[in-house]
Every structure is written in structure tokens, then in C-alpha cells.
Amino acid sequence: MTTFGFSLMCELHHPRDLLQQAQRAEAAGFDFVTISDHFHPWLYSHGHSPYAWSVLGGVAATTERLRMMTLVTCPTIRYHPAIVAQKAATMAAMSGGRFELGLGAGENLNEHVVGQGWPPAQTRHEMLAEAIEVIRELWAGGYVTHHGEHYDVEDARLYTLPDEQPPLHVAVSGERSIELALEQGDGMVGIQPDAELTQRFEGKPRIGQLAFSVNDSREEGLRVAHERFRFSAQGWKVMAELPNPINFEAATEPVRPEDMADAVPHGPDPEPYLQAIEQWTEAGYDHLCFVQVGEDQERFFRFWEEELKPRLAE
Predict the structure, then answer these.
(1) pTM > 0.70: yes or no
(2) Which residue among 11, 26, 100, 107 is the active-site one?
(3) Total domains present in the chain
(4) Is 38 among the residues known to form the active site?
(5) Could you say which of 11, 13, 38, 111 is catalytic?
(6) Quick one: which of 314, 298, 303 has its CA closest to 13?
(7) Quick one: which of 33, 24, 25, 28 has its CA closest to 305?
């Protein structure tokens, strides 16, 4: 059975608005919310990038049943894995076990800001694997001393732990990340409706994210999709490497609105959205969350309640 969530996209909204969206998502019947964990937005048109973990604390305090998940946190450069272990444990305890930790190898866009460089992909995956080891050691309780290839932890202990460790999901794209997720994750996160990414995770959560541009006008919906989501058009190998919004502005200059037509369902007709959801579920995803790329979030929630949710329940 597929569960559905709503994506809190920090790059697009003020933190107070994100809290209101989470509350509205709970009222609309969504099972969970995800939140992006960025230092910078992708494009100038985004305009925001608040600290995701502060927002998560607010979500935990102002909702009752909604599960929460980072999509995704990079625990390797900008954050030391011991700090990720602490804040994830705090969120799980504070929320009564409603928190899940999504992890990935990160993007230069966010990690370069602390001045420690941007290593090649193989090294980033090695760092992620070691970071997960540190996180799980600290979640197990007791004092931890760790001297590894990439991280040192000296005589550290988490004094506030949840009753149960939160689920830990790993973002996948290529073979190395799939192996890492299988070895060390409780589930996987993907951004492509590709059965080759999901088929080896049978029995584990398979989490996917879709971008929607719900709008009363098909033309305006496509324009907004291009304005706000074209950063994804050139694929993850490019997205992971560029350091700043100005670079994404330049790299996506050739992308035309029509180039986004198939990638982002748009306009008022529910059929393209339902077809996209079916494509992802047929690819093996059992947790789907939706980004509404336009400013009018309430338009999306009404569309979900009136058009999509009843059809998906049939």
C-alpha cells in the first residue's frame, strides 16, 4: 500500500509558512512530511533557505500524528555525524517517535560553505558510510570513541535518546549508493521512477519525491515549473557539483519551459498527476511525497483533497 506525503521545500518558503504547510498537510490527510536540508537555494527565484532542523522542531510541536523525514541530510562536511546523531535523536524523542532520518552524500551547493572542499563521489560515499556507523554507534547509547578514515569522535555520549532508534534511509542513484543503502539503511530514497533503483529493496521503505505545479492555467503552471524547478533538468551528476545559485542559473539558461513539460505535471487537469503517481508506484515506490512548486500551496491542498485523494482511494 502506498503512503503519501507532502514536501516542505525550504528553498521556496519562509519558515513560518513551512509550519503552516505542515499543519495543513496533516489536516489534508497526508501521512508524512519531508523537508529539504540546504544552506543555499538552487535558483534565485527560490528566495529562501532556512535551517531545516529548527523548522522540524516547530512541526513536531504543532502536529499530532504526522511523521517527519529529512529528504535528505548530508552528515559528512557541513555537519559532523555526531551532531546529526544528536539532533536526529532529539527529534525522535521530541516527536514521540514520529521522526525518520534521510541521509545522502550531499551537494557542493551546501557543503562548500564551511571551506573544507568538495571531494570526489567515491570519497563522498566512503564518508557517508563511516558517518552512518558513527550515528548508529551513538544511537546505541554509551560512550563512543571513534578514530576512522574521515571522522574522529572523542568520548561522546547522547544523553537524550528516543525509546526506539529512528528509521534511517539512504538516497540512491548509482550502484555504490545502492550497495550502501542495502548495507546500512532501513530504506531508500530516490528521485527517478526507475525500477532498477527499487527492486533490491523489497520489504523496505522506498521513498520517492515528485514535483507538481498545480495551477488553474496549464500555461502558467508550466511557466512556474520552469521558473522554479528547472534546476533538476540536467540530472544529479550536475546537481551535486555546482557550488552556488549563480552557477545553476547559468547551467539552466538553455532549459526552455517546454523542456519541463513531461518532468513536472502542471495545470488544472488531475490526469497527468495521477499518471505520474502510477508511474512511480509501478516502479516500486511505496512512499511518495509531493512538492508544489508554485507559491499557492492552498491551491495544491484543495486539489489533493478534491481531485487526487478520492481517485487514489478507488
Answers:
(1) yes
(2) 107
(3) 1
(4) yes
(5) 38
(6) 298
(7) 28
d(CA 216, CA 42): 26
CATH of the domain at 24: 3.20.20.30
CA distance 250 to 240: 15
Distance of CA 308 to the CA centre of its chain: 22
Task: Tell which residue, 129, 141, 80, has the closest CA to residue 104.
Answer: 129
Residue 180 belongs to domain spanning: 3-312
Q: Is 295 a catalytic residue?
A: no
Do residues 5 and 289 lie in contact, with contact meaning Cβ atoms separated by under 8 Å? yes
- CB within 8 Å of 163: residues ≥ 6 apart: 93, 97
d(CA 232, CA 249): 12
pLDDT tens digit sequence for 223-278: 999 999 999 988 888 899 999 999 999 999 999 999 999 999 999 999 999 999 99
* Span 140-182, pLDDT tens digits: 999 999 999 999 999 999 999 999 999 999 999 889 999 999 9
